[in-house]
Amino acid sequence: GAVTPAKAQGRCGSCWTFSAMGPIEGAYALKTGKLKDFSEQQLLDCSWGFGNNGCRGGFSWRGLVWARKFGVTSSRTYGRYLAQEGYCHCAKTDKCDTVHFERVMTVPKYNQTALRRGLALYGPASIAINVNRKSLKFYSGGVYDDPQCPPNTNHGVVVVGYGVEEGQPYWIVKNSWGKFWGEQGFIRISRKKNQCGVVS
């Protein structure tokens, strides 16, 4: 109940905005009991001064730093996602339904236990994975288990949970490639070692 449906970033290098907004949506849902769709477009338009580069890429942690300072607005109020950079509005103003939060929690790298505990206590987390493997790009379902998927990361996503299927432990990861990729936009990645860099 703390995860919105998967969205599509389109032909824009904005995965970092979706990776940043996922934990905010989750924390808001756990705090208020209401699931709200916050605006990735706002981060895309407004966080340039924090070292992000719009559709040319950015870092989710920088987006979260911006969001902590200025607050975030719902997609309904800010406007739909455009898959391109637009004009920044709703920042530094009370005219939008802006939500503020106090802090950003971090989890130690390479620590699966800490990440599982963080998910259980605080909800979805912003992470990055490696998406270079063709087997991942064409993933359609099941537990993704590819020992050759490297741990160096290049794509922002949201880890939303974990589980076990037939003795195979996995992470549940929300991607930004639309609902027709994977399992309605999600992928279950094996928790063996550090496949695809989930805990990097």
Q: Any overview of this molecule?
A:
This protein is of the alpha+beta class and 200 residues long. The protein has two domains: 14-99, Alpha-Beta Complex (Cathepsin B, Chain A), CATH 3.90.70.10; 112-197, Alpha-Beta Complex (Cathepsin B, Chain A). Helix content is 28%, strand content 15%. The chain contains six helices and five strands. It has helices spanning 15-32, 40-46, 60-70, 75-78, 112-122, 134-137, and strands at residues 125-129, 143-144, 155-165, 168-174, 186-190. A five-stranded mixed β-sheet has the order 1-3-4-5-2, sandwiched between helices. Helix 1 (15-32) packs across helix 2 (40-46) and helix 1 packs across helix 3 (60-70). The longest helix has 18 residues, at 15-32. The radius of gyration is 16 Å and the shape is globular. GO terms for molecular function: cysteine-type endopeptidase activity. This is Peptidase C1A papain C-terminal domain-containing protein. InterPro entries: Papain-like_cys_pep_sf, Pept_asp_AS, Pept_cys_AS, Pept_his_AS, Peptidase_C1A, Peptidase_C1A_C, Peptidase_C1A_papain-like. Residues 1-200 form the Peptidase C1A papain C-terminal domain. It comes from Nematostella vectensis (Starlet sea anemone).
